[in-house]
Write a structure and sequence with these properties.
alpha/beta; Rossmann fold; Arc Repressor Mutant, subunit A; 2 domains; five-stranded parallel beta sheet; four-stranded antiparallel beta sheet; 8 helices
Length: 238
Amino acid sequence: MITNKVKILAVEDDRSIAKLLHTYLEREGYAVSDSDTVAAMRRTVESTQVDLVLLDVGLPDEDGWSALKWLRARSDVPIIMLTGKNETIDKVIGLELGADDYLSKPFEFRELLARIRTILRRTEKAAIQVEAPADEKISFAGWVLDPTSQLVKSDDGDLLHLTQAEYRILALLVRNPGRVIVRDDLMSAAAGRDWDPMDRSIDVHVSNLRKKLDLDPDLPSLIRTVRGAGYMFVPKRN
């Protein structure tokens, strides 16, 4: 039973799906609000607290990608994309733009609930850690990772914007320099589930991290690919 109700915003223009989502999630103890357009979503986000967004890709006034970019420019609120096509490109685009997770329609409501609970547990854990005794900060290649605040900053103090999944992957890699981290462990850290060989989300998250962290294109990446295994963090690149 959820006492302080988590507020979920379902952005879905299919009324039958929206109604099912609303009924199911309210029965599970969440407070649910609905938007059937991107414009309505923006009004809701600007006027009320939202703890998690379920965002459909196909919306009548704008597509879900522009909605996702708008949200990410303003908030780190967890976002699960609901895609109407089981196509890799839709999933990759969503992850590249900062979505935390995705589900292809039609989906099982129990699976959606499991994804929501996993993301919210990690969000709650992050909030608790801010109040916990400070862990040792980790410095590498001009960056500083602070496990207490779960922030990454440059040596000059500039904040590096990371999604929750990107931060969790980076933290796992940084804590294990020179060690191969397999995709199963990276997926567990990022999304709390096992890796599927057909799932490209880990590769997309790592690609995003490289773009953000590797400031000198003439140097090898901080995150090396280990073919057939996973990835390795190599802080010394000279």
